[in-house]
Amino acid sequence: MTVSAPPTGSPTTAGVFPSLPAPKRRRFDRVVEATPLIAVLLIAALLGFLVWFADRSEREEAGLALIRDALWVEQALRFQIDADRAAVERLAVDIGDHPAEEVVVARIRSVVVAHPEIAAIEWRDGAGALRTLVPPDAPPTAPPNLGGNPAHGFTAPRLEAGRGHVADLAVPIFENGVRIGSLTARLHLERLLNEHVPWWITQNNLVALLDRDGAELARKSSLARDPEGPRHDLAFDPPLPDVVLSLTANRGPSSLTGNTLVASIFGLAFVAVVSIFALMRHYRRRLVAEESLGEAQALRRAMEESLTVGMRARDLDDRIIYVNPAFCRMVGWRAEEIVGLTPPLPYWLPDLVDETLARHHTLAHDELKPISFETRFRRRDGSIFDVLVYEAPLIDARGVHRGWMGSIIDITDRKRAEEVERRQSESMTRTARLISMGEMASTISHELNQPLAAISSYATGCLNLIRTGHGPADLVAALEKLEVQAQRAGRIVRRVHDFVRKREPRFATVDVVALVADLATFVAPEARKARVEVELDLPDAPAMVTADRVLLEQVAFNLVRNGMEAMATTPARMRRLDIRVRRRAGRDGDAAPPAAGEEIVVEVADRGPGIPPEVAEKLFSPFYSTKPEGMGMGLNICRSIVELHQGHLEFSARPEGGTLFTLVLPASRPAPEAAPPAKDPR
Predict the structure, then answer these.
(1) Integer Cα distance of 277 and 599 in angstroms
(2) CA 328 to chain CA mean position, Å
């Protein structure tokens, strides 16, 4: 049997294209044979492209999610730090109103409990001495150096032994514009992250606070750091100087290889379905993200419009770019009438335009830091009100300074209340002086009787000399003595008048030694009546302080009178009141002039029964008195007067029995001699 060879070319090409030459048919056959391979390669390439595209989209989405998480964490931490700072500032304002010390300690504890990220709060007096530390086992820090600048903020983080990194917030305590102490709050960075960064953030991210050199200060994460994971850093200064908030995502290995192998098994159809499904899922996730972003923006807008604090933003050219409804209600202009305006602005007072422009110029040329100040604004109806303004740099997401953000608080009612409180305090102080003078009425009348009796005797003697024919020369000595006694009576009357009349404090250089000596003379009749021996221990040189003499005399008088009254039940032979004036931390010898930082100490020691512990805790409290007829305002007013003079008043038990009251005032150099002040026309 004969077998014939098949024709050249494949049956398909031979049947379909019988007229093609053999070379062209062979080339065409190779193309047809390669078509499935090309298709597979194209499908693989398309699959690889789709998988690569999906992987890139996932990475971009992860990057966006990381940025959203970082912004969320930044806003949450800034909000909490602002809340911590506001709580400490409110606490400083409350302490400035002089509540009882146990009330202050309770309020400090409540702030520490309500803000767990605050590791400790220190309360120091005006001299920098530590008064309270909550919790008590926390290590104390050095007194803050607040200087004369009322502005305050967090210090750069520092490492506290055994406790991690902390940042200090020092807030001055003022009374009538005078700093009387300070509060220092310790912000624990590790606690800040642990308390206010939720688990769903740290589930896939490592949240850390870094210093400017990249060293880690605090962190929170359930996973180890992924060196290959995406990272997003945000400047966290302010509120924390030289601090960066860093979020590092912990992602699994890329699924590019696995997806390619799986997709190559299923083929083009499955790849198409998977691709469509992935696109649909991506689209749905984007819709959910946009909806969440819209809700977050709507919530922030609602929170912003519900604020009672006025918010105002201006750019670097001092053009108003934003005001919130609270600010519009405050000044009486609509937002569209204010936005876009440049200085001078319609709510500025004409008298304060130059001052406000100078402040804006200072802000533009000084370092970027928040400041606060008080000023006055004018409403659209012409009424004037007081405001407290906080100005902070306006920094965008890229860390570029875009302008200034101001928070405006209407403090008209607060200042009015402070003025009423000041007047009530002055009235109470004057009432205390009147009560003291009422109690001293018999003593004063006895002291006046002596010079008046002497005047009467000398006048009678002069008349007798005249009637007996004596000349003028015989009357000179008697008339001179009569004049001395008249001047003595006049001084007593003037002293009483100055002591009880209502007036504003007038500070001048006062010699404490002379004041105590005069006071001892003033109370001598009452001391003799009470059978109390007054012993003075005074230095030879003057001890000068800057004070209001009448107010300081009132404090010393109350301490001396209380000391004499405390010895009412003491045997008469033991009734001795010791009054001592000395310098502390000065140069060698009492005769040396006052040195910088020197203090004048006045000690009043009695030999009474002492002060029981249950009374000692409330001794300076208002309206508390151990006397049945007492008002309980004497020592409270004394302490207020001493603190007004930048000093402090304290007491302690004497080992030999009795109580020692110690009055400490900052010394001042003696002022140069000047003309005597004009007499009060009243």
Answers:
(1) 83
(2) 28
Burial class of residue 413 in the structure, from the number of CB atoms within 10 Å of its CB (0-12 exposed, 13-18 middle, 19+ buried): exposed
Of 491, 498, 494, 479, the C-alpha closest to 450 is 491
Give the pLDDT mean for 581-596.
Answer: 57
Residues 6+ apart with CB under 8 A from 560: 519, 520, 523, 534, 577, 579, 604
| DSSP label at residue 342 | -
CA-CA distance, 160 to 188, in Å (whole number)? 10
* Residues whose CB falls within 8 Å of the CB of residue 86, separated by 6 or more in sequence, listed in order: none
| Cα pseudo-dihedral 376, 379, 385, 389, rounded to 10 | -50
Helices (H), 245-389: 256-266, 268-305, 325-331, 335-338, 353-365
How much is the pLDDT for 447? 54
Q: Is the dihedral of CA 298, 302, 305, 311 positive or negative?
A: negative
Alpha-carbon distance of 414 to 90, in angstroms, equals 13
Which letter, b or e, does each residue of 42-61 get, where b requires 16 or more Cβ atoms within 10 Å of its Cβ?
eeeeebeebbeebeeeeeee
Which residue, 566, 554, 559, is CA-closest to 431?
A: 554
pLDDT score recorded for residue 663? 92
Structure tokens at 679: 């007499």
Q: At what angle do helices 268-305 and 22-96 cross, to 10 degrees?
A: 20
Q: How many helices (H) and strands (E) does the chain have?
A: 17, 21
- pTM comes to 0.35
CB 559 within 8 A of CB 604: yes
For the chain, helix, strand, coil in percent to 5 are 45, 20, 30
Q: Give the torsion sign (CA, 627, 630, 635, 638).
A: negative
For the purposes of burial, counting CB atoms within 10 Å of the CB of 513, is it exposed (0-12), middle (13-18) or buried (19 or more)? buried
CA distances from 428 to 484, 623, 641 (A): 36, 12, 12
Asked if 544 and 511 touch (Cβ cutoff 8 Å), the reply is yes
Residue 649's closest CA among 566, 556, 548, 562?
556
In three-state secondary structure terms, 645 is coil
In this structure, the dihedral spanned by the alpha carbons of residues 290, 291, 297 and 301, taken in order and rounded to 10 degrees, is 150
- Grouping H, G, I as helix, E, B as strand and the rest as coil, residue 520 is helix
Name which of 82, 61, 62, 63 is nearest 196 in CA terms: 82
- The answer to whether the peptide bond before residue 230 is cis (omega within 30 degrees of 0) is no
Q: Closest Cα partner for 26 from 17, 3, 40, 42? A: 17
Name 17's Cβ contacts closer than 8 Å, sequence gap at least 6. Answer: 25, 28
Alpha carbon 444 to its chain centroid, in Å, reads 49
Q: Which residue has the higher pLDDT, 628 or 267?
A: 267
CA distances from 45 to 63, 68, 231, 282 (A): 26, 34, 31, 22
Residue 375 identity (one-letter amino acid): T
Question: Mind giving me the DSSP string for 93-142?
Answer: HHHHT---HHHHHHHHHHHHHH-TTEEEEEEEETTS-EEEEESTTSPP-P
CA dihedral 78, 84, 90, 93 (to 10 degrees): -100
382, 332 contact by CB (below 8 A): no
pLDDT in tens, 235-285: 887 888 888 888 888 765 555 444 555 556 556 656 655 566 666 677 678
Phi, psi angles (nearest 5°) of residue 547: -160, 170
